[in-house]
Q: What sequence folds into this?
């Protein structure tokens, strides 16, 4: 045997690893400690969500979306609700729209806290995880106060939202935003200036704008390449066009850029929440229910009798919504990127076809390109910065 002969071998990485936030198996081909090929094996979590939805009414299908990306629950149910509202040509009240924005940005912060702190944990820094999960618990309390559930809230629904906000809710969120912004500044100083953290992320997992386009990247993964692209600005859904906020972009398309963008987006989300709260304070008496809603039952005050009210209520929740023959694709800027729902209706109360576009699926297919010729230790860094959750990938 020659002394300088190269040794190639295959490593089975998985099927479980904390950096993947789900069930992922990687077949890694190595030359020493250098990665030459990484092949993802997915589908171990497959539940057939899209097919299940075709056998449920439009209302009954909503809880499935909470369980796709189970870190960004409300953003998933929001996209599905928008799709149904567009099929029905249903407008929602201004108050419901601002409430949606508040909880969508709370969801973005929830996602980014988990993404950054668990990424740091996987790389070797334990303090951010222990420090910032306290704020994640406080945010989940806001979920619970409007829906009764800390995670699978089922709060954003076709036609608006489930319930109006409870007493002292606005003041409590303002206190949270103040506390969180102070600690977010400290967190930035603590982790961003860490020499070890910079060395583990800078120049690792770099991707160019052209390649990111070809792989179908979106969200933070795409903006890290220097492209200004955010569906909140591009599509102007809900009342985002009435709000003033910036879109952070990167320069190098590496792991460190993606970390900085997620950190900056949390600051921006706090500003969006506070601006939306100002609108709620000025329009406190407005109702969350729209006029002539096809998704909500009418107000009890205009019913001729209690029995008529109960019949309409029963039919809405048992028979559901009838949607005419039409198809639609709706996408939104979820915390992980472009989350889309394609619905085909056939003049019944159930979707004829449902297809879900999950951003993590497209990001994972670029893993081989992003890790080629990097060290094995960098594989966890790249998986962590992709921020993938297998509930939405395997579906």
A:
């Amino acid at each position: 045997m020659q002394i300088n002969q190269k040794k190639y071998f295959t490593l089975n990485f998985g099927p479980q690893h904390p950096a993947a936030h789900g069930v992922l198996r990687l077949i890694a081909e190595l030359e020493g400690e250098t990665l030459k090929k990484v092949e993802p094996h997915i589908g171990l979590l497959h539940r057939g969500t899209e097919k299940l939805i075709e056998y449920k009414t439009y209302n009954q299908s909503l809880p499935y979306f909470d369980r796709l990306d189970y870190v960004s629950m409300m953003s998933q149910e929001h996209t599905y609700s928008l799709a149904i509202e567009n099929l029905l040509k249903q407008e929602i009240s201004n108050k419901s729209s601002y409430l949606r924005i508040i909880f969508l940005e709370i969801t973005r912060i929830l996602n980014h806290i988990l993404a950054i702190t668990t990424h740091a944990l996987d790389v070797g820094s334990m303090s951010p995880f222990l420090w910032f999960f306290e704020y994640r618990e406080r945010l989940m309390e806001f979920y619970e106060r409007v829906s009764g559930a800390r995670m699978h809230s089922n709060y954003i629904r076709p036609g608006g939202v489930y319930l109006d906000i409870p007493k002292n809710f606005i003041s409590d969120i303002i206190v949270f935003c103040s506390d969180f912004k102070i600690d977010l500044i400290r967190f930035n100083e603590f982790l961003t200036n860490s020499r070890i953290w910079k060395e583990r992320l800078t120049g690792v997992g770099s991707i160019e704008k052209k390649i990111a386009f070809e792989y179908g990247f979106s969200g933070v993964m795409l903006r890290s390449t220097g492209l200004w692209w955010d569906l909140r600005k591009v599509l102007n859904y809900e009342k985002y066009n009435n709000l003033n906020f910036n879109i952070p972009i990167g320069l190098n398309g590496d792991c460190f850029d993606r970390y900085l963008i997620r950190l900056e987006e949390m600051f921006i989300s706090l500003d969006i929440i506070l601006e939306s709260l100002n609108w709620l304070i000025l329009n406190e008496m407005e109702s969350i229910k729209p006029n002539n809603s096809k998704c909500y039952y009418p107000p009890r005050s205009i019913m001729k009798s209690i029995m008529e009210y109960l019949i309409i209520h029963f039919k809405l929740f048992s028979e559901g919504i009838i949607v005419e023959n039409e198809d639609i694709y709706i996408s939104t800027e979820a915390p992980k990127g472009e989350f889309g729902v394609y619905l085909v209706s056939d003049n019944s109360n159930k979707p004829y076809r449902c297809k879900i576009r999950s951003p993590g699926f497209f990001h994972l297919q670029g893993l081989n390109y992003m890790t080629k010729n990097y060290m094995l230790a960098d594989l966890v860094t790249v998986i962590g910065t992709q921020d993938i959750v297998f509930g939405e990938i395997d579906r």
Observations:
- The mean pLDDT is 85.
